[in-house]
Design goal:
Layout lengths: L7 H10 L2 H7 L2 H17 L7 H25 L1 H4 L17 H22 L2 H22 L6 H10 L1 H10 L4 H24 L1 H7 L4 H4 L2 H18 L11 H23 L3 H32 L4
Helix pairs in contact: 2-4, 3-4, 3-9, 3-15, 4-6, 4-7, 4-9, 6-7, 7-8, 7-9, 8-10, 9-10, 10-13, 10-15, 13-14, 14-15
Length: 309
């Protein structure tokens, strides 16, 4: 059971030091930027031109605020384990810059605001999907999955994969199969991305008591799982071409990047010693970010240039 008790001294410190930038850091701005980008691609990839760009941009803002709210609630809940991990100990709560209670109130307020704004600017389906995304990340993933199963990233990845569906729904009022293919790309991309990270950060996760795949199933099983999920995402990433909302440019990018992603996963799988494994896992983690960005950028470019379908 996690310990979420507060130190009175740190509370005083937080009261004295909290700055606007500290609250912005609670929103996980790097994650939020990815959410904005993928939600925008979902909007643009949806059939027909965007009818009202001012309302679409307000909707995009609401989606980004909802993502930030999820981040704040996640940091509120995870402040105890964040304090013992080198990657996260500098975050606002463990560093003593923001009080836990303030982070919770901030995240809850932004969650409600984001859902209401999206309902007013777009429609109830998009707002409902956003509300579910926030709930899934803050409650299902953060409070239950993350500390209880090595499949935490697999199931929890649904939260990070939903923004393009929310974006699609915001401009069309629907969430068809095509939107869920965009979801599937991110969903199946998430395990190899995070498990590559967990291979060279396994000591951090072990110290925090988080059952990541390398700590529970071992390095060899993690490498195999990464390879399997890479094959799945490489195949799924090509499917938009067959559903007529992506064309030759996207298809070419998806095939080439999928081959590179797969080659990196194979290199990691066959790595024999620790040094080779660390090099391969860091390389794969870095490329995975590049991969997802370019896949979505290619789809965005096609639709903006009218080359799709």
């Amino acid at each position: 059971m996690s310990n979420h008790s507060a130190d009175p001294n740190s509370e005083t410190l937080a009261f004295n030091l909290a700055q606007p930038g500290d609250y912005f850091a609670l929103l996980k701005p790097r994650v939020m930027s990815l959410v904005i980008f993928t939600a925008l691609v979902g909007m643009v990839a949806a059939p027909g031109p965007v009818a009202n760009w001012p309302l679409a941009l307000i909707s995009l803002f609401a989606i980004s605020v909802g993502a930030g709210a999820s981040g704040a609630l996640n940091m509120w809940w995870d402040s105890d384990i964040d304090a013992v991990m080198s990657r996260t100990k500098g975050r606002p709560i463990p560093s003593g810059k923001v009080q836990r209670a303030d982070a919770f109130g901030f995240g809850l307020f932004l969650s409600v605001l984001a859902v209401i704004v999206l309902a007013l600017a777009a429609n109830y389906l998009a707002a409902g999907l956003l509300a579910f995304t926030i709930f899934f990340y803050a409650v299902i993933y953060s409070m239950f999955l993350k500390r209880s199963t090595p499949q935490n990233i697999v199931i929890g990845g649904a939260a990070g994969a939903l923004p393009p569906v929310v974006g699609w729904a915001a401009v069309t009022g629907t969430a068809p199969l095509e939107a869920w293919l965009l979801f599937a790309i991110i969903f199946f991309w998430t395990p190899p991305h995070f498990w590559a990270l967990s291979l060279f950060k396994s000591e951090d996760y072990a110290a925090a008591g988080i059952p990541m795949m390398p700590n529970v199933k071992g390095e060899a099983r993690t490498k195999l799982e990464i390879l399997v999920y890479t094959v799945i995402v490489a195949v799924i990433a090509v499917t938009p071409v067959f559903f007529a909302f992506a064309g030759w440019l996207y298809g070419t990018v998806a095939v080439v990047l999928g081959a590179i992603f797969l080659a990196g996963s194979i290199r990691l799988y066959v790595a024999k010693d620790e040094a080779a494994t660390m090099r391969a896992s860091k390389s794969l983690f870095g490329f995975s970010i590049f991969y997802l960005f370019l896949i979505y950028a290619a789809l965005l470019a096609e639709h903006l240039l009218g080359l799709h379908g």
